[in-house]
Every structure is written in structure tokens, then in C-alpha cells.
Amino acid sequence: LERSELVARLCGILGEENVLNSEEDLYVYGFDAAQGWEMPWVVVRPKNNLDVARVLEFADENVIPVVPRGNGSSLTGAVVPIRGGIMVDMTSMRGIEVKVDDGLVEAEAGATIDEVDKECRRYGFFFPPDPASSEVATVGGAVSEDSGGMRGARYGTVKDWLLAAEVALPGGKLIWFGSPTYKWRGTYDFLSLFCGSEGTLGIITKAVLKIAPLPERIARVLAFFGDLESAAMAVYEIRRRGFNPLLLEFLDGDTLTMVNEAYSLDLPDAEAAVMADFDGPAEAMDRIAGEVSNVLKRSGAFRVDTSTDPEVIERLYAARKGCYSAVTRRYPKVIIEDIVVPLSKLVEAVKTIRKLKEKYRLQIITFGHAGDGNIHPTICLDSDNGEEAERAEKLFYEIAETAIRLGGSVSAEHGIGVQKVGLLKMELARKGCLESLEYMRMVKRIFDPNGIMNPGKLGL
Ligand SMILES: Cc1cc2nc3c(=O)[nH]c(=O)nc-3n(C[C@H](O)[C@H](O)[C@H](O)COP(=O)(O)OP(=O)(O)OC[C@H]3O[C@@H](n4cnc5c(N)ncnc54)[C@H](O)[C@@H]3O)c2cc1C
User: Fold this and answer.
1) Given this model, what pLDDT does residue 228 score?
2) Is the CB of 203 within 6 Å of ligand 1?
3) How distant is the alpha carbon of residue 444 from its chain centre?
């Protein structure tokens, strides 16, 4: 189809007001939060599930690439339309309905995680997975990336909360996978196939998600250390002592400095910090905070702050959520990794990364979800090209290799997109399971025989 005909046909399906094709609009849709390459040929903004199905029927008939999009906060290029095609912006579909007695929330794909969480809080509940980008991350994006967040230490990732989803398939069929109940057995687990599929199988229009009751009270503990190893060891010690933290985060000294500056906090200079939350009945919180504080001091912390004041807790939470933004403000180019290692290898991972920093003479700041072994070493560059960029590329691979060597993985929650296809192949090859990519291609052909869904992503 000529581009003008493509636009005219889509205007006929969705109405002119829901189709964008000016150069300015297309340019904006050529990026995610980390990178950009190509512009889509046209952007559509469906208003409901039937609109989405009609777009997929048309695209499949004409074998046109389709890229579903939430708010474009992917960090791996997953939403960048590298083969052009139709960009399906899902953010007009944002209905949310909490069903307290069923212990769940139904949300359309374009609602943000914060909107879902806020709606649950009106009923005394919350939605546990909390990607640092929750203000913009949509339900469709978070399901498609199987996103995690700071509360992952206790609550895992989106897949642990996903009960069912309505999906539009190439060809225009709308189908539900899973069941809006806490337990269910039946077909193969198609729902899990879609969770983490990065838009390569179909478009999620609605999800049914479990919710959890709000804790009565939270205590936050923030401990500062003079060396990285002690901080990483403290993470083990918290677990060993039988505490079950709600979140357990790690920040190295340079991250701390940047966050301190960016959010005007009054944090001390330190080589590392550990932030942990604990929940429980109000009367128990001071005791728990005190006990954890003693454990951290014995592990080498030179200062431990504790608080049960929701305002203080929120301020620190927002600052930790803002780590990536604080770094991008300071450096023109950053490359964020998303490695995960077995919990017992965290200290070794952190130590190796520090050695790599010296070997490659590049700044790496490291923060992340220490409670689940997932850290984000972030390579900071002054420019996007030249010798420094070449060194950074090698370092990017060597950090990922470190994770694989320690029995971990190259991605925990940000996904593969295009940025980590090479890393994924390296991991699969080292683990002797490269042919899982071939199984993925076979599965994709079942749902998407013409290969229109987000082509070029996830190594497909
Ligand atoms: C500052 C910052 C902090 C972040 N912190 C975290 C974090 O703590 N944890 C974490 O896991 N991630 C994090 N991310 C990454 C990102 O925000 C998440 O992956 C997020 O869930 C993506 O949501 P989105 O709506 O922006 O999706 P998009 O970026 O628009 O899309 C992501 C992928 O999902 C697909 N997709 C989108 N909607 C649909 C749909 N309805 N149906 C099918 N496929 C769809 C897209 O095609 C693409 O492949 C962070 C990003 C930034 C910029």
C-alpha cells in the first residue's frame, strides 16, 4: 500500500481524529526512553478493543508491521518501530475497575500502573509491582515486559499478579487467556506466553490483576556503608535473620551523590547504601526497625536512619525511583544494564563490576533491587560515539558475561527489545539452549503467521 492509501484506510476504520501522520508526530513515536532509530509510517489511537481488533485485521491482511505502544518508557528499544509500520498507541484505553470481593482489578491496557495503584488505594488495597517508571508505565507495557520494581523482593514481577488478559490477535480475533480467579487449570499457560512477549504475539487490550491489602504500617531503614562489600553482605544478613523485607534496595556511592544532588536530600557521603522496608502492625514497627538497624550496624553500617513517617518514607522512595533520571541529567549518554544473579553471588557481582570500572576507565554507577539479585550497573558516557563508545560496548558485554558466569541472566525485568538481542543469544549459547529461539519462532508463527507483530524484537 502507498502511505497515503494506508492512512486513508486507517482513517476509514478508526476516524480521522484517531490517526496521526504528521512528521512531528511520527518523529516523537520513533523513540523509547533510551533510544530511537526509525519512525512509524502512521500512528493510530484505538478507543476500545474492537478498534484494536479491526486494526490488526487490516494490518494482517496487508502484511504491515504493527508495534503496540504504551507510553514508550522501554529501556531496550522494544517499542521502537525498526521496520516502520503502524504504531498502535494504547493510551486512550484506560478504564479501571476494582473488584474488592474478588481481590482483583480489571484495567485497560493504556491505564498507567500508578493510576491502577491509586484506584486500588481508595479501597484499602494496592498493586504491588512498582516499576520506577510507574507514573508512565502502562498496564499493557508492564504485562508485555513482565516488569518488576522495588517491591519485587517480596512481591515478584507482574506475572505473579496477572490472572487473565484479553488479547487482540493478528487477523482481528479477540480472545481471553487465563481466568479472573485466584486458581485455574485448563489449557497450556498461554497467558504466560503473552506476559513478557514484548508485543511480538498480539495486543493486550485488558488485564485482570490481583491486588493486596495495604500494610498497616511501614518502617523504612536506610543504612550507609564505608565499603561496597559490607553493604552487599548486609543484604544477606537481613534475610539470614529471618526478616522478610517489602523492598530491599542497593545504591553505590556515586548513585547516592547524584540522587542527593538531584533531590536536595541531606544524605552523607558513603561508598554504598541499603534501603529496606518492613511492614506489620503499627505497634510492632519501632521494634522491627530497631532490630534491623542493629543487624545493619553489626554488618558495618556507619549510620542507620529509620522512619515510620509516611512523608519521609515517600520522599526517599521517590528519590530511589529517580536514580535513572538523576544519572541521565548528569551524563549525555547512559547505558543501563539489568542483570540478575543468584542471591548468594551479589557480592561477587558488585566487586567484579567495580574492577571492570577500572579496567575500562569508564564511570559505572550501580543501583538496584538487591533483594531479588537484580542490579542495574549503568555505564555513563560523555559522548555517543568514538573510542569511548567502543569501550562502553565491550564493557556492556563484559558486565552481562559476568552475570552469566555467576549463574544469572542478562535481563531481569527490562526485557530484550533490540538492545539486548546479542546478550540474549550469548546467554542462551553459553547455557546450551540456543534453540529456544527456534521454539519461540514456532510459537510466534501460531499466533502471528505473517510475522507482523513488532518484528525484529526479542531476537525474532
Ligand atoms: C526512568 C525509568 C525507570 C524504569 N524502571 C523500571 C523498573 O523499575 N522496573 C521495570 O521492570 N522496568 C522499568 N523501566 C522500563 C519500563 O518503564 C517498563 O518496561 C514499562 O513497563 C514499560 O511500559 P510502557 O507503557 O512505557 O511500555 P512501552 O515502552 O510503550 O512498550 C514496552 C513493550 O511492550 C509492548 N507493549 C506495550 N503495550 C502493549 C500492549 N497493550 N499489548 C502488547 N504489547 C504492548 C511494546 O510493543 C514494547 O515491546 C523503567 C524505565 C524508565 C524510563
Assistant:
1) 86
2) yes
3) 22
Cα angle 38, 42, 44; round to 5: 125
Nearest in space to 147 (alpha carbons), one of 205, 198, 211, 190 = 198
Tens of pLDDT, residues 161-213: 999 999 999 999 999 999 999 999 999 999 999 999 999 999 999 999 999 99
Residue 4: which region, alpha, beta or left (left: phi > 0; alpha: psi -120 to 50)? alpha
d(CA 142, ligand 1 centre) in Å: 5
pLDDT tens digits for 351-391? 999 999 999 999 999 998 999 999 999 999 987 778 999 99
User: Which residue's CA is the closest to the ligand 1 atom numbered 18?
Assistant: 74
Report the separation in Å between the CA atom of 71 and the middle of ligand 1, taken as the mean of its atom positions.
7
Is 138's C-beta closer than 6 angstroms to any atom of ligand 1?
A: yes
Contact 98, 123 (CB under 8 A): yes
- Alpha helices per DSSP H over 284-435: 285-298, 310-321, 323-330, 346-360, 386-405, 421-430
**Residue 81 CB–ligand 1 contact under 6 Å:** no
